[in-house]
Write a structure and sequence with these properties.
It contains 15 helices and 18 strands. The chain is an alpha/beta fold and 465 residues long. The chain has two domains: 253 residues, Aldehyde Dehydrogenase, Chain A, domain 1 (3-Layer(aba) Sandwich), CATH 3.40.605; 181 residues, Aldehyde Dehydrogenase, Chain A, domain 2. Helix 2 crosses helix 6, helix 3 packs antiparallel against helix 6 and helix 4 packs parallel to helix 5. The radius of gyration is 24 Å and the shape is globular.
Length: 465
């Protein structure tokens, strides 16, 4: 079978790739395992040297990589350049900090010496999505490799070029051949890789249904999994917010990557006293965003990644309208080729409406009225998801208090929710479990080993009674 790369801006097939057979995928895992036997023994200094070279390669190839992402999944080139630079930042962070994070931790006991050691597990399978085809992979690979693991990647089938480019950059940096392998396989081949005897753990970023499937398969063979799944992030705007800052931040968060981000703002919960003014500002800013060719530097919103994704999003929008949402902007399929969808604003959204209850993976915003702060928090938490959340207020103590009330893996005050190599990233509820990034992320795929050393009593002198 073939895996095709299709340009979502015009529907043209860019390139086709031969899918690996199950035997070829298994051989790649075997190779990774053999590499791990020696890689685990390399020094942190050597790992860091290679990771720093990877960072330099990413920065040197950022324009080329941005064009590849624009071609395969429609990301505007400027955003693609920023994504490549962020990957380089993650490589630098773990090159600089992995040794200290994973240093043995002494624990006082009755032993002569006791401590906790952090040792690599082995081959980790990463099942990754197309929306951030570089970042999603590097935020797994940089800490995993620095911890002494090796990785095999099953990337989304619409970004095979990006998947192969990542493997080539690790090789160019000097990593041994089996340290990071790309598996060109479809979704049907994932279970076989999870069940491979040399795969020790699996990490997935994707939809909640995909997470359930992978977690179930990993559980059947007692292998650890980390899941970063969907989100319906609420952004709460209180009556004392800086409305211009709030509106600009909310729009930017909703439209980054054409709204195709798990942690993009999706539900905007605004208290009644400022709903009218916020709505006016928000709609005006959404209307001003330029939709178009991802290769055009002026473009702010590119196409969705696939036509079927656009069709599914529009179906959700129409269902939301049928259930009472009012259209303030957009909601019309544009003519012409390409999987473009206009920035769309739905007002009067309430629980029970698809725009409230489901994840809308595209440039569609849901405006929700709250009576007051307590009602806003209630509405923010009235979701099965729990990835990120934000609140806007001039009172920082109030903002921090509200942030702590959100049922989410991250909470931001007066800022859009974003991942950062220095901070743990992940969700709760149907947004998944486990953490990536920061010191917590690198420890997800290590053996936390207790080491207990007790000295023997002095031996009696020879010849004594």
């Amino acid at each position: 079978m073939a895996i095709a790369s299709i340009n979502p801006a015009n529907g043209e097939t860019v390139k086709t790739y031969r899918e690996m057979t199950p035997q070829e995928a298994a051989a790649a895992v075997d190779e990774a395992h053999e590499t791990w036997k020696s890689w685990r023994a390399t020094s942190f200094a050597e790992r860091a040297r290679l990771m720093k070279k990877t960072s330099a390669i990413l920065r040197g190839r950022k324009n080329e990589l941005a064009k590849l992402m624009a071609t395969e999944m429609g990301k505007p080139v400027k955003q693609g350049v920023a994504e490549a630079e962020k990957c380089a930042l993650a490589c630098d962070y773990y090159a600089d900090n992995a040794e200290a994070i994973l240093a043995p931790q002494a624990i006082a006991t009755e032993a002569t010496r006791s401590y906790v050691a952090f040792e690599p597990l082995g081959v980790v399978l990463a099942v990754m999505p197309w929306n951030f085809p570089l970042w999603q992979v590097y935020r797994f690979a940089a800490p995993a490799l620095m911890a002494g693991n090796v990785g095999v990647l099953k990337h989304a089938s619409n970004v095979p070029g990006a998947a192969l480019a990542i493997e080539s950059m690790f090789l160019e940096a000097g990593f041994p051949k089996g340290a990071f392998r790309t598996l060109l396989i479809g979704s049907a081949g994932v279970q076989g890789v999870i069940e491979h005897r040399h795969v020790r753990a699996v990490t997935l970023t994707g939809s909640t249904p995909a997470g359930r499937s992978v977690a179930s398969q990993a559980g059947q063979v007692l292998k650890k999994s980390v899941l970063e799944l969907g989100g319906s992030d609420p952004y709460v705007v209180l009556e004392d917010a800086d409305l211009e800052l709030a509106a600009q931040t909310c729009v930017n968060s909703r439209l980054i990557n054409a709204g195709q981000s798990c942690i993009a703002a999706k539900r905007f919960v605004v208290v009644a006293p400022v709903l009218g003014e916020f709505t006016d500002r928000f709609v005006a800013l959404m209307r001003a965003k330029k939709v178009g060719d991802p290769f055009d530097d002026a473009t702010e919103v590119g196409p969705l990644a696939r036509h079927d994704l656009r069709a599914g999003l529009h179906k959700q929008v129409l269902a939301s309208i049928e259930r009472g949402a009012r259209v303030l902007l957009g909601a019309q399929l544009p003519p012409g080729p390409g999987a473009f969808y206009p920035p769309t604003v739905l007002a009067g959204v309430k629980p029970g409406n698809p725009a409230f209850d489901e994840e809308l993976f595209g440039p569609v915003a849901a405006l929700i009225e709250a009576k007051d702060e307590a009602d806003a928090v209630r509405l923010a938490n009235a979701t099965t998801f729990g990835l990120g959340a934000a609140v806007f207020t001039r009172d920082l103590q109030r903002g921090e208090r509200v942030a702590r009330l959100f049922e989410s893996g991250a909470a931001f005050v007066n800022s859009l929710v974003a991942s950062d190599p220095r901070l743990p990233f992940g969700g709760i509820k149907e947004s998944g479990y486990g953490r990536e990034l920061g010191s917590f992320g690198i420890k997800e795929f290590v053996n936390v080993k207790s080491v207990y050393v007790k000295a023997l009593p002095p031996a009696p002198a020879f010849g004594t009674e």
